[in-house]
Amino acid sequence: MDNQNRAAMEKPRLNSFIASSASTELQLRRISQIIFAVAVTLGLVALQNLLVGNWRTSTITLVSIVLLLVAHRMARAGRLQLASSILLVILTTMGTLLVWIDQGLRDHALLGYCGILIFAGLMGSARLFLLLLGFMLANIVLNGVLNIQGIYVNKVPPLRAGNIVDAAAVIATVGFASWLLAGDLRNALSKLEAENQRVRDSQQQIEHLARHDPLTGLPNRLLARDRFEQSLALSQRSKGHVALLFLDLDNFKTINDSLGHPAGDDLLCQVANRLQEVVRGGDTVCRQGGDEFLLSLGEVNGRDDAASAALKVLERLSMPFTVSGHQVLMSCSLGIALAPDDGSDFDTLLKKADMAMYKAKDSGRNAWRCYDEEMDASVNEHLRLAADIRPALANQQFTLHYQPQVELVSGRLVGAEALIRWQHPQLGLIKPETFIPIAENTGLIIDIGAWVLQEACAQAMRWHRQGFTWMRVSVNLSPVQFRRGDVDLVVSKALQDSGLPASALELELTESLFIDESLALFEVLDRLRRRGVSLSIDDFGTGYSNLGYLQRFEVEILKIDQSFTRQLVENPQDEAIVRAIVQMAHSLNLTVLAEGIENRQTLERLVALGCDLGQGFLWAPGMPVKDFEKLLGEQTRPV
């Protein structure tokens, strides 16, 4: 156990010990004060009785004073219970003796009994209190009975001035002691009430923290659930609707990482404030966690009202934020689910609003979507494919097809792009654009990517052994593979296992990879280039185009995306873009490959523009190995 935890555990014990010690010291001080007051009172009584010649009373009081010194000594020694017991026994014995030798039940010594019992109840033990009470009652009854029967009769002399002094002294002493003890009791009660108030405040704070987000102060999911259920109960009586909006900030991680976590926290608080400004007084804004928020809107008239609220949120959050002195633009994606149309409980609505939110993100972000039943089918399909990917790899359901890459001027086959295919036993052929995003989200793209590299390199080496040593194979790499930081090792292993020369392998990278200009990425790409592997940029012109990285990483090939080539002949803008890419690439000594060439007119136009290589359905789609090898065997003539 570390020192901090030990200190946290010992602190309550230490506080309790300090409080106990302070209480004991106060009680010792009080008993000393009471002993002193009683001794002074008894001294006055003894002196008064000596003056009138009442030797018996004087003797009893003087002996009591001497015995009080013993109680005082015990108090000085810190023995509280013993000192209290001695004091109470002395006073009870003295009072009882005075009752019997003087005026019996009419004696003013009986006044002291009340004070003794009060003191015993506050300072003594329960057993001592009961013993003293029983002793006093027994003496009172016995004295009264003996006097009534005439067996023992206490004489009642005429009232003297000394009697007044004695009675006043007893009352004063009892009053003084009672005042001291009552004051202590009042202080204790006051402290107890203050402590109770602190406990109540702490409980309220704990309850608030348990039901609110500590950063933004918004209700958390627990409180949002309660308020949603209250709104739902009201809407059921009025036959209305309750909308649950699931909000996720777009690209919050980028802002959080670039400006720092304190700036990110500040941005979340500003977002929370704006959301509260948009909703009505009876609606609830909740922070779900991270950059996710929930909005519970009661009494809405169907999807139109919910959509109107979503548009207000999008508009409000699209206004610039000021964070750490920077102007920050933010957007969000919203999913909407309605009760009772889409469900009648919070968890169901939350799940469906979450689905709708992801649909909004898929549609381009800064958008809203309402839940529909097709989303359930899409999610179920997604989950099924995610579960089937790993077994598919183990059961060899994946295969590679190869699409020819052709030199445009000569028509000579120069290489092939490896394209993965999934032949699902129940669902049939599944397109890569369907399962690759799922594999990337689940991390399974790491295993799939390693398999593709191994298989493509092995196949290319088989072609080399058949005499096609000029054949190059290109393989697509996912940005997810680079995040692991060991993709160069995976590539090296595939080359080593197959024996393929590194110069015969081309790795296709997407432009989105270069948004992350981290040192780790630069180091991995540098190791790949030093290994002798060629690098190409796939789908150039559709994403993050930065000429700096083309030279920095010694990229050899730019692949023009098919969206620019399919309408090349009919669309002058596409032609202008392709011409600019070709000219720019050649000025940097890069080779240009055009994707999606489907007809002779497009081919001729690309040749006229100076494009070097191409691939597309004009020659062949992706083909199984056997079909591609037939094409290889015909390489005595152009493709």
TrEMBL record:
Gene3D superfamilies: 3.30.70.270, EAL domain. Signal peptide: none annotated. GO terms for molecular function: cyclic-guanylate-specific phosphodiesterase activity. Its cofactor is Mg(2+). CDD domains: EAL, GGDEF. This is cyclic-guanylate-specific phosphodiesterase. Keywords: c-di-GMP, Coiled coil, Membrane, Transmembrane, Transmembrane helix. The keyword Transmembrane applies. It is found in: Cell inner membrane. The keyword Membrane applies. The chain crosses the membrane at residues 34-52, 58-75, 82-101, 164-182. PANTHER family: BIOFILM ARCHITECTURE MAINTENANCE PROTEIN MBAA, DIGUANYLATE CYCLASE DGCP. GO terms for biological process: cellular response to nitric oxide. GO terms for cellular component: plasma membrane. Its EC number is 3.1.4.52. It comes from the Bacteria.
